[in-house]
Amino acid sequence: MATSEPSLRERNRQEAWTAIHEAASAAALEGGLAAATVDVIVTRAGVSRRTFFNYFHTKEDAILGLREPVLADDAVAAFRAAGREVVGDAVHLMAAVMRTAGPAGMADQRPRTVLQRVPELLTRLKQHVTDVQQLVEPLIAERLRSRPGENGEPGEGGVESAALQERVTIVKMLAGSILQYAYATELAAVVAGDSAAIDRAIDAFRTVSRTAL
Asked: Whole-prediction pTM value?
């Protein structure tokens, strides 16, 4: 089936986004995070500060090429259909959402190289994980509510029980921590969509939780 070509407006937006990202990442690789100021980035990209902030919230996002994460329909369907442990499935869901936040699924080489050479940027990446945690929280609640023996019945006025919300919070925090560990240990594989790398992080957490908790 034929696909429609992007409009001129869409092409111009993508070109501006790419110019800013490439200028930002190049500045960071050359001089580190401190040297990659917004003024330096916009000068190198040939755009205004206003244009910069139309595309990126922070210089860290511009350096990494991070966009707002999106909860795609296929990721939602995969999570709902999965039959593994809730925490593990939540990690895979969060990883899928995180991949929507970067260029080409965060699989291109530049963001990985920048993260490896400018490790301070991991702080911003962790903030994106936190944003993703909030995005997927309703799906985690839906999953826990539907599981036999784990569902908390809604209270008066349709408010969910405190017990259910506590479980949702714990699953969300555990899944986010495991994903951050996966980024710290196998960054290239995780951002490239390697499910096995995520599973290894889940297994490492499971091993530690059995012996240390």
From this structure: 0.75
| C-beta separation of 114 from 25 below 8 A | yes
State pLDDT tens for residues 39-79.
999 999 999 999 999 999 999 999 988 888 889 999 999 99
Alpha helices in the chain (DSSP H): 8-31, 38-45, 49-55, 59-64, 73-81, 86-99, 109-117, 122-146, 162-185, 187-191, 195-212
* Secondary structure of residue 150 in the 3-state scheme: coil
Longest Cα–Cα distance of the chain, Å, equals 59
Amino acid in the structure at residue 210 = R
DSSP codes joined into one string, 100-148: TTSGGGGTSHHHHHHHHH-GGGHHHHHHHHHHHHHHHHHHHHHHHHHST
Q: Two tokens at 157?
A: 């006025």
Q: Per mean pLDDT, which range of 7-16, 66-75, 101-110 is the poorest?
A: 101-110
Tokens coding 3: 């696909």
Indicate the domain borders of the chain. 8-64, 73-212
* Length reported for the chain: 213
Q: What angle do CA 190, 73, 175 make, to 5 degrees?
A: 40
Instruction: State the distance between the two ends of the chain, measured CA to CA, in whole angstroms.
Output: 54
Contact status, residue 165 vs residue 146, Cβ threshold 8 Å:
no
CATH topology of domain 8-64: Arc Repressor Mutant, subunit A (1.10.10)
Q: 113: closest CA among 2, 4, 25?
A: 25
